[in-house]
Amino acid sequence: MPTTTPIDDAARYWVRWTLLFWAIGAVVMLYMKWGQIHWLGLADTDDNIRLAQVNAWLSGQGWYDLRQYKLDPPHGASIHWSRFVDLPIAGLILLTRPFVGAFDAVRIAVAVAPLIPLGLALFSSVLAVRRLIDRSAFALGAAMFFCMGTMLLMYMPTRIDHHGWQLALLATTVAGSVDPARRRGGLVAGGAIALSLTIGLEMLPYLALATGAVALRWVWDRAEAPRMAAHGIALGLGSALGFALFASYDNRLPVCDALSPVWLSATLLGGGLFVALAAIRDDRRGVRLAAAVAAAIVVAGAFALAWPQCLGTPERLSPELRALWFVHINEVRPLYAHSWRTWFPVGLPPVIGLVGYALMLWRTRGTVLFPAWATVALLGLTSAALMAWQTRSGPPAQILAVPGIAGLAWFVLPRLAHHRLMVVRVGGTIAAFLLLSGTIAGIVVRAIPNEAATPTAPIGATTGKARKTGPAPTYRNRVALANRRCPTLPALRPIARIPTATVLTFVDLGPRLIAMTHHRAIAGPYHRNQTAILDVIHAFRGSPDQARAIMAKHGATLLLICPGMSESTIYNAEAKGGFYWQLARNRVPAWLTPVPLPAGSPFKLWRRVE
């Protein structure tokens, strides 16, 4: 009678083990972020707008109305997201509110909601590793997943924006793409892509590439036709369903930055052509290649003719907004433009993943696994290259590196673990794991003291998206302190006691203000609201009279600043003599009267007098 090893038993129950890994990871994350959960510390502007969006919906705003009316009142700020990510947050609030009260229900929701897509991302990554390497490699995949530090930040409690879901669906796309059951894999990958597009277009380059890889696999092997047909059906019908259920009123217009008629037409046409191509029974690769190229030309040509306004970047920023606002956003700057303390831990895992992909492509050449490895390797290579364009490509690059790193570790670690020398078996295995997982980068960063700030050393925003430079360590510390203190509930509580008003404040502070108080703000950092963003920037960079006119234009009666916040450093450095520059030096115009705040408040607040 055959016997099974503990490894075989673990592989048999890999789903249960994966759930256990998820539960342990969730508990650790909750412990790490307990203070932030307690104080409802939503550190990113997107998290605050997401909560404001959920609160507005629970207060009666329409399902398809995603305008944020507390920004740029009275017509509101157009937000390009969908309601899908709102569902678990709102569900947790409604489920727990009768038992714990409104405030604690929100705290529970923002703590638990990010852990849901974390589970999907972990399961999909483990499943992909299991399919690509070995059924017993699932634990190694889970270990490497939890070593991807930058990616894990997208799943930390209170991180309730949409990026975690998009990363999870990217991992699901990978798991479907490497599924040996072709029809099932096509349905999973195509459906995951459709849902990701429903949430937002941030993953569009990877999703388009994954779809193109399906066509290339069919060109190489006609047996891939079932995968191609299923992928096309799931992509087309899934996108149509996502558009019908989740597209806001604004997104039903021909906009370029969301699943609108623009991109829906592309997915429907592309999905239909996939089904048509899969029906071709010609065994000649040249014929299939010509058909695939013709289909790609049809989709690209139809898109260009129907929607020429969307051939550029989806944000469609004006040159002025790009120069005054967009270039200051940390996450859109190339990774190499940051300090090594940023690019080293972000970039090391994807590079190691590429080494792993090269090894696995060589080892699986000529086998049935080669096309699957080639698909994932192409995605990993693209994501690593995109980090040289924008830093926000770091998290997808890390999650796409997991199979490659796991493949490399599967090759290296057993050879060390079975070495005849104990020092190699123990020390070598540990050292190799730390290196291959990229964990060594975090150890190095923590071990080397932070360099003193220089006139070109970047100061990153912790509460929003802006950044600026500082001349001395004390300046860096002052900025960090302001970024930490101003968004806190104790700091905002005195402002929340003031009767409702429209407030001129920093673009990056607007989302936190409207999420935590009843006040309204002129702008938040969302590209569709270019006029409002520019108004705030012009107000702080221009003359006092210009600021007064802008406040009057928007009906703003309060002016709120947090001296030292990252955004303020831009006005201070680039607009010397401007309105903010004068306020920071206590040169306050006569048409502003101070509003008393408690001693020690990090804010300065004035009321506009007629």
From TrEMBL:
Keyword presence, S-adenosyl-L-methionine: no
Coiled-coil residues: none
Membrane-crossing segments per the record: 14-32, 108-129, 136-156, 187-216, 228-249, 261-280, 287-307, 343-362, 369-389, 395-413, 422-445
Position of the signal peptide: none
Keywords: Membrane, Transmembrane, Transmembrane helix
Domain of life: Bacteria
Name of the protein: AcrB/AcrD/AcrF family protein
Provenance organism: Sphingomonas prati
